Amino acid sequence: MNVPAVRLPFDESEASSIAGEIRELLVSGRLAMGEKTLAFEREFARFVGSRHAVAVGSGTQALELICRSLDLSGASVMIPDLTFMATAFAPVAAGAKVILVDVDLETLQMDPGDLEDKMRPDVRAVILVHLGGFISPRHAEIREIARKNGARFLEDAAHAHGSVIDGRPAGSLGDAAAFSFYATKVLPTGEGGMVATSDGELKDLMLKIRQHGQSRPGSNVHESFGLNFRPSEIHSVLGLNVLRRAERLISQRREAASRYDDLLSGSPFKIVHPAPGARPSYYKYPCLLPPEVPRDEFKVLLGRKHSLSLPGEVYATPLHSQPFWKKHGELLNGPRQGFPGSLAASRRQICLPVWPGIAREAQEEVVAALKETIGCF
């Protein structure tokens, strides 16, 4: 079956246009921190409904930059157990420890009850991950738990470019949000990241840290600790290109997701539905296998019978199971067991191809293969 797991949203015409812009950039001699990056920051802030945006080299850098700007060193940061390790590594790199919070199997999102149970006095930030581009239906409740305990409410929006809930875009719900433009993301530039915030003071701190602690870039005067989190002008060119087409690309993902909803209706596969009033970006289209079907065996059989490879899950290994903690358990300020929601989600979850422009016929082939394969269990 010739259905790619992921396909980049660049055709011949777009590639030619981008090549021309990069050629102009090379002739200009300005490859970093120029007009393209400023324009990308300005347009992205407008896109997500924040006052400011700060471009960086990756989504992980974006989250670390937020944590460093908030001075979370020595504090605890609460994150969901079902996410990519970068959500943990970013606060750890900024000197914090993490507390893992279980997720709700129905939504794959952070469980507010477990969050409240594990809250402790040294928690200074709660990071809500918009997993797969889905915003938690209980985001306001999670934000309130964070704020009543004196903690900042942050968004890991690496999957959520263009996601909306109750009329509010991802990136405008908390104190700051981190986005990724990695090659597989909703808006890909190969590498790159962005922080969105409406806090002007936080933005100013980020600009210093991004540029080795310089208040005036290029001055060689360092007023505070900083690192090199700078993006390149070439990545900003790519970012402006995909941003111009963002509404169309995201709309195509939503259309594909709606077709899967129809095709899977009445099947043994449990659809993960968005909250009422929410419009995910559908970075991923996750669904759950029946509890008795072993996911890894299912995927092997699917490949053997139909030559179909599915995209990676979000995620197959919950954070508490990662071997990293066996060597660095001192970086966890909470238990490494007792996560029934994330364990069930990680074991039962599969994700279907949902890239922009996927044809209905291809989706019908995918679903037919899924249904035929699950009949073998």
- Span from first to last CA? 21 Å
Task: Give the % helix.
Answer: 25-40%
- Beta percentage is 15-25%
Order of strands across the widest beta sheet?
A: 1-11-10-7-6-2-3
One letter per element, helices H and strands E, the order comes to HHEHEHEEEHEHEEEEEHHHEEEHHHEH
Estimate nothing, just give the exact number of structural domains. Answer: 2
How many individual helices? 13
Structure description:
Strand 6, helix 6 and strand 7 form a beta-alpha-beta unit. It contains 13 helices and 15 strands. The strands form four sheets. It has a seven-stranded mixed β-sheet, sandwiched between helices. A three-stranded antiparallel β-sheet has the order 9-8-13, with no helix packed on it. The protein starts with 11 loop residues before the first helix and ends with a helix. With 377 residues, the chain is α/β, with parallel strands linked by helices. Helix 9 runs parallel beside helix 13. The radius of gyration is 21 Å and the shape is globular.
Write the layout of secondary structure elements.
Blueprint: H1 12-28, H2 35-48, E1 52-56, H3 59-69, E2 76-80, H4 86-93, E3 97-101, E4 103-104, E5 109-110, H5 112-118, E6 123-129, H6 139-148, E7 152-156, E8 164-165, E9 168-169, E10 176-180, E11 193-197, H7 200-210, H8 233-244, H9 246-264, E12 270-271, E13 278-279, E14 285-288, H10 295-306, H11 324-327, H12 340-348, E15 349-352, H13 360-374
Parallel strand pairs: 2-3, 2-6, 6-7, 7-10
Antiparallel strand pairs: 1-11, 4-5, 8-9, 8-13, 10-11, 12-14, 14-15
